[in-house]
């Protein structure tokens, strides 16, 4: 599902502000990783969905769906489809090998939107000091689709650096998409084996590492600026929609997965706002 869509390189690079810098640790499997943190509450998810279905968001969605010229914005008639879900992402503590660190933690609430002509998009909503805000629109419905694919058996999470989706079930990390199958094989791996795998890949690229200090995380020097009005417009016209430029760096830090500043060379479909 993910391999055929374009994706943006920003999607895994900006969370250090929200999560804090972690120095690389010696590789070892965290003995008995902590249980997954609870998903966002029913009340919080309802608030996030309310933000995702607000008139302002639907107006922006109409422009998003009309960006290719296939239909006019006033004909898009976007609507939310299916439930809004908590999206979990790989944690830097687990990568570092911190004892008891959970493999993944909640990062944002995703809601699927559908246009009148069948286009699909995912709305990312985060809790800010001003309440729940939509901070990104991404093409496709990966976020909600993969959670649904697990049928409530285990916890679904994303390894954003390679855009891979997994479910943790009975102490094993099982793949849900082709990227994940390439990483852990069709039958998946134990949590301990997965920890060793991600530590090997990302352990020297955590915030505060030499890799990070050298500014190699996707070209960012550690202080990414919010997009300007013109860059936000350009993002809308291509693959994603920037909402308010003010506070964009904070929103991106809150929403974007894991504090690993890793250069991504594969195609991407998301633009942080």
Would you give an account of this structure?
- By secondary structure, the chain is α+β, with helices and mostly antiparallel strands.
- About 30% of the residues lie in helices and about 20% in strands.
- An eight-stranded mixed β-sheet has the order 4-3-2-1-5-6-7-8, with helices on both faces.
- The protein is globular, with a radius of gyration of 18 Å.
Q: Indicate the radius of gyration in whole angstroms.
A: 18 Å
What fraction of the residues are assigned to beta strands by DSSP?
A: 15-25%
State mean pLDDT (0 to 100 scale).
Answer: 73
Computed structural class: alpha+beta
Approximate helicity band = 25-40%
Sum up the overall morphology in one term.
Answer: globular
How many H/I helices?
11
**Major sheet description:** 8 strands, mixed
**Uncertain spans, ≥5 residues at pLDDT below 50?**
2-31, 218-273
What's the total count of β strands?
8
The secondary-structure element order is HHHHEHEEEHEEEHEHHHH
Q: Distance between termini?
A: 24 Å
The spatial strand order of the largest sheet comes to 4-3-2-1-5-6-7-8
Task: List the topology elements.
Blueprint: H1 16-19, H2 42-52, H3 55-65, H4 73-76, E1 79-90, H5 92-96, E2 104-114, E3 120-128, E4 131-139, H6 142-149, E5 155-159, E6 164-169, E7 172-175, H7 178-184, E8 189-190, H8 191-202, H9 210-213, H10 229-237, H11 248-255
Parallel strand pairs: 1-5
Antiparallel strand pairs: 1-2, 2-3, 3-4, 5-6, 6-7, 7-8
């Amino acid at each position: 599902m993910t391999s055929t869509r374009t994706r943006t390189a920003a999607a895994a690079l900006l969370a250090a502000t929200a999560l804090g810098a972690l120095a690389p640790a010696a590789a070892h499997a965290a003995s008995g990783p902590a249980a997954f943190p609870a998903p966002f509450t029913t009340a919080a998810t309802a608030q996030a969905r309310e933000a995702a279905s607000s008139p302002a968001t639907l107006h922006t969605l109409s422009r998003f769906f009309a960006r290719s010229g296939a239909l006019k914005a006033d004909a898009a008639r976007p609507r939310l489809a299916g439930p809004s879900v908590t999206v979990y992402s790989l944690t830097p503590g687990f990568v570092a090998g911190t004892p008891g660190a959970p493999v993944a933690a909640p990062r944002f609430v995703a809601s699927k939107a559908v246009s009148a002509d069948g286009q699909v998009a995912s709305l990312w909503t985060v809790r800010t000091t001003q309440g729940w805000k939509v901070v990104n629109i991404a093409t496709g419905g990966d976020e909600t689709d993969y959670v649904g694919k697990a049928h409530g058996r285990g916890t679904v999470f994303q390894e954003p650096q390679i855009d891979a989706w997994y479910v943790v079930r009975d102490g094993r990390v099982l793949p849900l998409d082709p990227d994940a199958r390439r990483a852990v094989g069709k039958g998946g791996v134990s949590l301990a084996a997965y920890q060793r795998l991600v530590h090997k890949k990302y352990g020297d690229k955590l915030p505060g590492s030499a890799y990070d200090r050298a500014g190699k995380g996707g070209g960012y020097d550690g202080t990414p600026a919010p997009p300007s009005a013109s860059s936000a417009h350009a993002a809308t016209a291509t693959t994603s929609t920037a909402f308010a430029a003010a506070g964009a760096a904070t929103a991106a830090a809150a929403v974007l997965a894991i504090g690993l500043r890793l250069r991504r060379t594969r195609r991407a479909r998301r633009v942080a706002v």
